[in-house]
Amino acid sequence: MISQHSYFQQCLPALQQLHNMNFTKEQLLQKDFLIGQEKELSMYYSPHNDYINPDAHIIIAGITPGWFQMKTAFKQCVSSQSHHHPLEQVLYETKKAASFSGTMRVNLIDMLDQCGIAKAMGINGAAELFASQRDMLHTTSVLKYPVFYKGKNYTGHQPPIERSALLSHYAFEVFPQELNEIKNPCLIVPLGKAVENVLRKLSSESSLSQHTYLFGFPHPSGANGHRKRIFEEHLREFTEIVEEWAVNRRS
């Protein structure tokens, strides 16, 4: 299912010029893909959050796609298009390749396994959510498209989302509309404090109160030095929440 907020068609002519390129920052962080700018913030189009899985049972939400994910998404999108796949398939393949790609995905899978996600979902391991059981998973970001602050990946803190009209629009209007496209009561895993803060505000809204939230889940990035300690401190709580969600899901 294609997001109603997709910039894909608008960016398609520029996308089609990307064949045989190295996908450098100079090639991708340019005016044809610029969605919005505000002071030292800039938001650029990336094709991997345009596919929405309305049948998902678990939602993993980051703050915003980083440069590595953006580059991976453009590479996959150009490759899929070169094989003349239908648009929805192109966007699905792009999301599958780019979402939480790299070491972050490895860490995330390990953390989900420790929380008992595989048992709760009746699968062999959380890695299957990114492969054969992808239809159970929806990955997304509070800020749908890559945001950069002073040219570096935006982390959710400087400036705070609430102090930016551009970021607030995506976090508190576009993001909840996307979550409302998903039919099932889901287990939502917010990656990091900034995502958690947004979801705590949104979860009080009636349409999003049906979901179960793993609040306190640390960001799986290798750069997060406190990740293991925070995760271990909350692990028992996480496993209990997952077990309870699994029971409710079956009833």
Q: Could you name the key traits of this structure?
A:
single chain, 251 residues, alpha/beta, Uracil-DNA Glycosylase, subunit E, four-stranded parallel β-sheet
Class computed from helices, strands and strand pairing:
alpha/beta
* First-last Cα distance: 28 Å
Largest sheet: 4 strands, antiparallel
State the name of the first-level CATH class: Alpha Beta
**Widest sheet: strand order?**
1-2-5-6
**CATH fold assignment:** Uracil-DNA Glycosylase, subunit E
> From the alpha-carbon coordinates, what is the Rg to the nearest angstrom?
18 Å
Overall tally of structural domains:
1
Shape: globular
How many helical stretches?
9
Order of helices and strands: HHEEEHHHHEEEHEHEH
Q: Which range does the strand content fall in? A: 5-15%
CATH architecture tag? 3-Layer(aba) Sandwich
According to DSSP, the number of beta strands is 8
The CATH superfamily bears the name Uracil-DNA glycosylase-like domain
Uncertain regions: pLDDT < 50 for 5+ in a row? none
Percent of residues in helices comes to 40-55%
Q: Give the rounded overall mean pLDDT.
A: 91
